[in-house]
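ok trying again, last paste got cut off:
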Amino acid sequence: MTEQRQIGRLTFRVEDDLMVARYALPDTMDGALFLGALALPIARVPRFKAVFVKMMQDALERILLDSAGVKPTWDGPKEKRN
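nice, full thing came through this time. structure:
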């Protein structure tokens, strides 16, 4: 069995009138990679938000496979850290 470890995280944050997706290291947002953004009124529609989240997961999976040969696993949302 292969041990899993967190090498980064996909984050979604509200910034002004956008929901912004970034890939960040486990414990910091410094140097986070911008992946995409969706207008907040659209992101508030559950089916559109779900499509956006899936698209960002698929995009990040492609980036990680191409650059590091790693396929991410998606464990679901985590609690926001303070």
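cool. The radius of gyration is 13 Å. The first strand starts at residue 9 and ends at 15.
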